[in-house]
Amino acid sequence: MENFKGGEKQVSEEKRKEILERREAHRKLSERILAGTEYSETIVVKGIDNQDHEVTVYAVNDEDYRKAIKIAGMESKDLLDRNAVLAHWGLANAIAPIATRDPDICKVIKPAQSFKILEKVIEISDFPFRAPTDVREKPIQPTA
Q1: How much is the pTM?
Q2: Residue 142 φ then ψ, to 5°
Q3: Which residues of 44-72 are buried (b: 16+ CB within 10 A; e: fewer)?
Q4: What is the DSSP string of 122-143?
Q5: Phi, psi angles (nearest 5°) of residue 58
Q6: How far is it, in rounded angstroms, from Cα 53 to Cα 55?
Q7: Which of 2, 15, 110, 116 has a C-alpha 20 to 30 A away from that of 133?
């Protein structure tokens, strides 16, 4: 709740916290926009040597994402479901070399570690998933 005291506007602690969180989110978004595909974050994956390794994961642009989808053999309708995308092993293996900029990454990490890379790509590339549309079992016939 906002109060006016002595001609100055006071903001509640809750509202102040909300404003600071929004500023931080905007700051991070601005960094990503300015960095483009040079924006990266580091994750830890398990190597075939059974050791943890830090891997830099870069944001992926639309063209590279489409290449990975084509390599994985996915259809556009599959891309609407975040869970389906994150569960697609072919996409995880196709996107990992692109996002890490290491063509041999899948040869040196344990099975399924590419899913960690895919999850980070989705997060930092801000891929827009859409809510499912209302699909009816039977078509509705217009009345006269």
Answers
A1: 0.65
A2: -65, 145
A3: ebeeeeeeeeebebbbbeeebbeebbeeb
A4: HHHHT----PPP---SSPPPPP
A5: -95, 150
A6: 6
A7: 116
Q: Tell me, what DSSP letter sits at residue 14?
A: H
Count how many residues are written for the chain: 144
Task: Copy the structure tokens of residue 43.
Answer: 């994750």
Rounded CA-CA distance 93/128 in Å is 21
Residue type for position 37: T
Virtual torsion, Cα 98, 100, 106, 110, nearest 10 deg: -150
Residue with tokens 């994961």: 57
- Per the listing, tokens 């994150």 go with 86
